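#data-curation
PF: Archiving a pair of folding outputs for the training set. Convention for this channel: one message per protein, sequence first, structure tokens after, nothing in between. First:
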Amino acid sequence: MARIKIPLPATFAFSCVIPVRVTDINYGGHVGNDALLGMIHEARVLFLNRIGYTELSMEGVGLIMADVAIEFKNEAFMGETLLVSVAAGDFQRVGFDLYYRVEKETEGKKVPVAFAKTGMVCFNYSQRKIAPIPAAALQQLIQAAPNNGQQ
């Protein structure tokens, strides 16, 4: 069976810390896949906020997550703190990708927990249809992108 491999950018423009809570733990005793997706969502919201946007307001359009891929690397447990780094790239006419590197610190070393990618599409909620990336938003995203959006 083929496995998902997510090529990550060499550098990330934004990082945030997200604690692992008891509600993030599944019956296997570690962070569940649904909880990890929620943590990625949290990091995305914080990243967008850092550049002056929300998922519903980005220069007159909103965002919809069109797809997601997660490559799980290691377990994470209650009480640990995760460092989630975010980078934008692969800009297209109506969307772009966000890349996520989720790490924890173990014995003084950063250990990968997961790599992820979300395909984000611009959406006009009042017209209920896909919209082009506004030029000003594209500039903000490119400025926040490592290597100015070049993958």
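PF: Second:
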Amino acid sequence: MPTLSSIQRRLRPPHGWPVLLGALVLLAIAIVIVRIPFRAELRDQIAHRDARILATLIQQQLDETGSRLFREDPLAATLAASFNPGLPGVLAIQIYSPEGQLFASLLGPTNAVPPPEPLQPATQLPVTRFIPGAPPQLQVWLPLQPATATGVLGYTHITLDASDLAAEYDRLDAGITRQSLLTFLGIGFTLTLILALAFHRLQRANLLLADRSNRLEQANRDLSLAARTSAVGAVASHLVHGLRNPLLALQQAVAEAGHHPDASDTARRMRAMIDDVVRVLRDEQGLPGFEISADELLAETGRRGRSQLPAHPVIQWESIAGSGPPLDNRTANLTLLILENLVTNAAQALSSEGIIRLHAAHTAGHWEFEVHDNGPGLPPEIQARLFTPSLSGRPGGSGLGLALSRQLALHLGGSLQLRESIPGHTCFHLSLPS
């Protein structure tokens, strides 16, 4: 079954730079694809413009000569119209019959130029063809049709020096290239902004998803831990109920015997621990409350620690409590259980001698408690799963103390965590709302 972290990785947005680069490449390809037919269309329009100007000049000449010369010599009228000295840059003139046969060649090669097949009607002429070279040429097919005649007398094929046209083509290409570049830069910049904004929002959404996934996983772990520690708490309550009266009888029997003071002291401490649990349960049931200061709470924690650990007479106890509002008895009792368990663990971690420090400070509406010791510290594999029930770093330990302590802290709306654990210093931090 996929976990939340694996789902989060699947939903992670792609890296922005490759996507942006691909989009810009596609934009450049689209501009080039549009540019090619657009350039060809503009070149055709410019060539047709020059051809239409040329056709107008020849048609005027043909109309002027046709009225008086065409009746006497149609060929002379046709030659006079085609061979116009005023036409600039004429390299060759060829005249064809209406059927497309070469009739005459002037100012150029005498070989026939294949006419466009089939010959188009006069309304669709002129036909142009640009030939690059040195010099570049523009070939134009024009109809010969004077106003005094009906039908087409023939066709003329004129070859012009197209140096000016080639220069205009170069200027046109430069303008199209410049416009294409400006278009690419403008659209590319806009596209970059849009994609950058989109990826920024996707990244924020991914971070929010990651944060929510982490919190949900933490909540699931807390719920799992709460369920396990609640079951442990139920078992502990059953044991308290079942052991309280038999332990009292055992304590009385050992005291009457008078031969085992250590056993009697152990039974007494066990009875005190059970009474503390019973008192906490009564406070949870809403019995009349009272208040206790943090300084009194630390003093009671130290007293219980010393009384429960008589085998460590060389342990030094230090407690510092800052000023702040007092704690109600319900919070104080549960806090006392947590601190007592932390102090017991710290004392058991010390081999023979050492220092246990208790600190309490009130900041930003919270009581911050810390338990320090200068013991050997916890192994890394224990730190990774420190608050898991049944996991203990002490031989013979049950691993329930820290798990229940953390659950009690969560029950009070606070938190319990390991601040530091290295050789020579271990610190647990308890934070509770005041």
